[in-house]
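Sequence only, no structure available. Ideas?
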Amino acid sequence: SYKNTGLSNGTTYYYTITAKDKTGNESVYSAEVSATPQTLITNLSASPNAFSPNGDGTWDTSTISYLITKDGQVTIKLYDASSQLVRTLKDSLAETSGSHTVLWDGKDDSGNILTDGVYTYKIEATDSQGNTGSPVQATVTIDNHFMRINQPLPGSSILGTVIFKAVPSAFANI
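Reply:
I predicted one. C-alpha coordinates follow.
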Protein backbone atom coordinates (compact mmCIF):
# COMPACT_ATOMS: atom_id res chain seq x y z
CA SER A 1 0.00 0.00 0.00
CA TYR A 2 1.28 3.48 -0.89
CA LYS A 3 -0.21 6.84 -0.05
CA ASN A 4 0.85 9.92 -2.01
CA THR A 5 0.38 13.11 0.05
CA GLY A 6 0.76 16.80 -0.72
CA LEU A 7 -0.97 16.61 -4.09
CA SER A 8 -2.82 19.54 -5.65
CA ASN A 9 -6.50 19.24 -6.51
CA GLY A 10 -7.22 19.35 -10.23
CA THR A 11 -3.66 18.32 -11.21
CA THR A 12 -3.26 14.99 -13.02
CA TYR A 13 -0.50 12.70 -11.73
CA TYR A 14 0.89 9.77 -13.71
CA TYR A 15 2.28 6.57 -12.20
CA THR A 16 4.08 3.42 -13.29
CA ILE A 17 4.93 0.59 -10.92
CA THR A 18 7.76 -1.89 -10.67
CA ALA A 19 8.67 -4.45 -8.02
CA LYS A 20 11.97 -5.81 -6.68
CA ASP A 21 12.44 -9.10 -4.89
CA LYS A 22 14.89 -9.73 -2.04
CA THR A 23 17.68 -10.65 -4.43
CA GLY A 24 17.34 -7.45 -6.47
CA ASN A 25 15.47 -8.81 -9.48
CA GLU A 26 13.21 -6.07 -10.86
CA SER A 27 10.00 -6.55 -12.81
CA VAL A 28 9.10 -4.63 -15.93
CA TYR A 29 7.21 -1.38 -15.40
CA SER A 30 3.44 -1.52 -15.39
CA ALA A 31 1.27 0.35 -17.82
CA GLU A 32 0.93 4.02 -16.96
CA VAL A 33 -2.08 5.02 -14.87
CA SER A 34 -3.23 8.48 -13.89
CA ALA A 35 -5.18 10.07 -11.05
CA THR A 36 -6.56 13.57 -10.58
CA PRO A 37 -7.38 14.55 -6.99
CA GLN A 38 -10.61 16.50 -6.79
CA THR A 39 -11.83 19.14 -4.39
CA LEU A 40 -14.16 17.54 -1.86
CA ILE A 41 -15.07 20.69 0.11
CA THR A 42 -16.11 24.09 -1.30
CA ASN A 43 -18.27 27.13 -0.46
CA LEU A 44 -16.88 27.55 3.05
CA SER A 45 -18.37 30.32 5.22
CA ALA A 46 -19.35 31.25 8.77
CA SER A 47 -22.34 33.43 9.63
CA PRO A 48 -22.02 35.59 11.51
CA ASN A 49 -18.26 35.67 11.08
CA ALA A 50 -17.92 37.40 14.46
CA PHE A 51 -20.27 36.40 17.29
CA SER A 52 -20.65 36.80 21.05
CA PRO A 53 -21.53 33.60 22.92
CA ASN A 54 -22.40 35.51 26.10
CA GLY A 55 -25.95 34.19 26.52
CA ASP A 56 -27.73 37.48 25.80
CA GLY A 57 -29.75 35.94 22.96
CA THR A 58 -28.07 38.05 20.28
CA TRP A 59 -25.48 36.50 17.95
CA ASP A 60 -24.68 33.74 20.47
CA THR A 61 -23.75 31.17 17.80
CA SER A 62 -22.10 31.00 14.41
CA THR A 63 -23.22 28.69 11.60
CA ILE A 64 -20.41 27.14 9.57
CA SER A 65 -21.58 26.23 6.05
CA TYR A 66 -19.86 24.14 3.39
CA LEU A 67 -20.53 21.96 0.37
CA ILE A 68 -19.09 18.49 -0.15
CA THR A 69 -18.87 17.26 -3.73
CA LYS A 70 -19.05 13.50 -2.94
CA ASP A 71 -20.56 11.34 -0.23
CA GLY A 72 -17.99 10.77 2.50
CA GLN A 73 -16.75 11.21 6.04
CA VAL A 74 -16.43 14.80 7.31
CA THR A 75 -14.34 16.11 10.21
CA ILE A 76 -14.56 19.71 11.48
CA LYS A 77 -12.14 20.97 14.12
CA LEU A 78 -11.58 24.42 15.64
CA TYR A 79 -8.19 25.78 16.70
CA ASP A 80 -7.19 28.84 18.72
CA ALA A 81 -4.57 31.43 17.68
CA SER A 82 -1.83 29.12 19.05
CA SER A 83 -3.04 26.28 16.77
CA GLN A 84 -4.27 24.29 19.78
CA LEU A 85 -7.33 22.14 19.13
CA VAL A 86 -10.23 23.57 21.18
CA ARG A 87 -13.30 21.86 19.72
CA THR A 88 -14.26 19.00 17.43
CA LEU A 89 -17.66 19.68 15.87
CA LYS A 90 -17.76 16.61 13.63
CA ASP A 91 -15.48 13.58 13.74
CA SER A 92 -15.63 11.37 10.62
CA LEU A 93 -19.37 11.89 10.30
CA ALA A 94 -20.94 10.28 7.22
CA GLU A 95 -22.56 12.91 4.98
CA THR A 96 -24.05 12.89 1.51
CA SER A 97 -22.88 15.25 -1.22
CA GLY A 98 -24.41 18.70 -1.05
CA SER A 99 -24.64 21.68 1.29
CA HIS A 100 -24.24 21.20 5.04
CA THR A 101 -24.05 23.35 8.17
CA VAL A 102 -22.87 22.98 11.73
CA LEU A 103 -23.60 25.32 14.62
CA TRP A 104 -20.79 26.47 16.93
CA ASP A 105 -21.74 27.87 20.31
CA GLY A 106 -18.30 29.32 21.11
CA LYS A 107 -17.51 26.54 23.58
CA ASP A 108 -14.55 24.17 23.81
CA ASP A 109 -14.84 20.37 24.05
CA SER A 110 -15.32 20.69 27.85
CA GLY A 111 -18.28 23.06 27.49
CA ASN A 112 -16.42 26.22 28.53
CA ILE A 113 -17.03 29.47 26.64
CA LEU A 114 -13.80 30.42 24.90
CA THR A 115 -12.10 33.79 25.27
CA ASP A 116 -12.36 36.56 22.69
CA GLY A 117 -10.16 35.92 19.68
CA VAL A 118 -9.88 34.56 16.17
CA TYR A 119 -10.42 30.82 15.76
CA THR A 120 -9.61 28.69 12.72
CA TYR A 121 -11.98 25.96 11.61
CA LYS A 122 -10.59 23.17 9.44
CA ILE A 123 -12.75 20.81 7.45
CA GLU A 124 -11.49 17.51 6.04
CA ALA A 125 -13.41 14.99 3.95
CA THR A 126 -12.72 11.47 2.74
CA ASP A 127 -14.91 10.05 -0.02
CA SER A 128 -16.36 6.53 -0.03
CA GLN A 129 -13.36 5.22 -2.02
CA GLY A 130 -10.97 6.41 0.72
CA ASN A 131 -9.69 9.47 -1.19
CA THR A 132 -8.97 12.34 1.19
CA GLY A 133 -9.42 15.84 -0.20
CA SER A 134 -7.19 18.73 0.72
CA PRO A 135 -8.29 20.24 4.06
CA VAL A 136 -9.90 23.68 3.81
CA GLN A 137 -9.94 26.29 6.51
CA ALA A 138 -11.28 29.72 7.40
CA THR A 139 -11.68 31.82 10.53
CA VAL A 140 -14.45 32.93 12.85
CA THR A 141 -14.15 35.46 15.68
CA ILE A 142 -15.50 35.40 19.22
CA ASP A 143 -15.99 38.98 20.40
CA ASN A 144 -18.09 39.53 23.51
CA HIS A 145 -17.33 43.27 23.52
CA PHE A 146 -18.04 44.70 20.06
CA MET A 147 -18.03 48.17 21.60
CA ARG A 148 -16.39 49.30 24.84
CA ILE A 149 -17.63 52.40 26.65
CA ASN A 150 -14.66 54.52 27.68
CA GLN A 151 -16.52 57.64 28.90
CA PRO A 152 -17.80 58.22 31.48
CA LEU A 153 -15.30 56.17 33.44
CA PRO A 154 -16.55 53.25 35.52
CA GLY A 155 -17.61 54.43 38.98
CA SER A 156 -18.31 57.99 37.82
CA SER A 157 -21.39 59.75 39.18
CA ILE A 158 -23.58 61.10 36.41
CA LEU A 159 -26.30 63.71 36.50
CA GLY A 160 -28.35 65.29 33.75
CA THR A 161 -27.48 64.77 30.08
CA VAL A 162 -24.48 62.51 29.64
CA ILE A 163 -22.52 61.79 26.49
CA PHE A 164 -21.18 58.27 26.28
CA LYS A 165 -18.12 57.55 24.18
CA ALA A 166 -17.23 54.10 22.96
CA VAL A 167 -14.48 52.47 20.98
CA PRO A 168 -14.70 49.29 18.91
CA SER A 169 -13.09 46.19 20.33
CA ALA A 170 -9.82 44.92 18.92
CA PHE A 171 -11.77 42.35 16.88
CA ALA A 172 -14.46 44.62 15.44
CA ASN A 173 -14.48 44.85 11.65
CA ILE A 174 -15.52 48.51 11.38
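The mean pLDDT is 87.
Hope that gets you unstuck.
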